[in-house]
Design brief:
The protein has about 240 residues and is mainly α. The chain has helices spanning about 1-35, 45-70, 75-120, 135-140, 195-230. It is found in: Membrane.
Length: about 240
């Protein structure tokens, strides 16, 4: 019984720490889909982020109850803790399943959307860096094309003439005088935008997935510890039900 009390107190502090981790993961997913919302057709892709925020909010009173029960057992608090642990388990399993599924689905969708935006982008060999969605992504992520800069040589704009450059947004930040000239390929970003977007997306989703998985183990231990303490304080009435 003393071990169950100590473990429950320890897990109460763990719940407070993981609440911050869950809130960070939720905000990461929500802000990512807000910044790149035009690349995703489904608006519900940010749902794992909102579920993670809801989990973080519920973790705070759960941690308070766990610490309180470890000091002084209360039948009402023990019952409430069990309900909260069950609710958290449902939220986390849903969030983890959605995060893993969206990471796999969004990868193929990103390639299709990015390829369409690059192919339809009207650009010329000029000094205008452009403010289209593709230009914004290329400047923000320091990337060029879908897979690399050669994707720009296959677009509808380059089919009218022999392209000697790519959009200026492909230039690296350290080359302030770069205008996308193919004669100076070393001034262009080497990596494609698809790989960087997939990396950001899967990092955010897998972060939530593993947070939820690890936290579920902690909640199972908290439920077992709480159950052990409840066994030593049997029901004398059914009012709590």
């Amino acid at each position: 019984r003393s071990s169950a009390r100590s473990l429950l107190r320890f897990l109460g502090f763990i719940f407070w720490g993981t609440a911050a981790a869950q809130a960070f993961g939720g905000l990461l997913v929500i802000l990512m889909f807000k910044n790149y919302g035009y690349l995703f057709q489904e608006s519900y892709l940010s749902l794992p982020g909102w579920l993670a925020l809801a989990t973080a909010l519920i973790l705070l009173p759960t941690g308070v109850l766990a610490v309180s029960i470890s000091v002084k057992c209360s039948r009402n608090q023990q019952g409430t803790l069990m309900y909260l642990l069950l609710l958290l388990l449902c939220l986390e399993m849903s969030s983890a399943a959605l995060a893993h599924s969206f990471c796999v689905r969004s990868a193929s969708q990103l390639e299709t959307v990015m390829g369409y935006l690059v192919h339809q982008h009207n650009w010329t060999c000029s000094q205008d860096p452009g403010n289209s969605a593709v230009d914004v992504i290329q400047r923000k992520l320091q990337c060029c094309g879908v897979h690399n800069y050669t994707d720009w040589l296959k677009t509808s704009s380059s089919s009218w003439y022999h392209a000697t450059c790519v959009p200026a947004s492909c230039c690296k930040e350290k080359h302030s005088y770069c205008r996308g000239d193919l004669g100076h390929v070393e001034q262009l970003s080497e990596e494609g935008c698809l790989k960087k977007l997939e990396g950001q997306l899967c990092f955010a989703m897998l972060y939530i997935f593993w947070c939820c998985t690890v936290l579920s183990v902690f909640e199972f231990l908290a439920g077992v510890s709480n159950g052990i303490l409840m066994r030593h304080q049997p029901f004398h009435e059914l009012r709590i039900l």
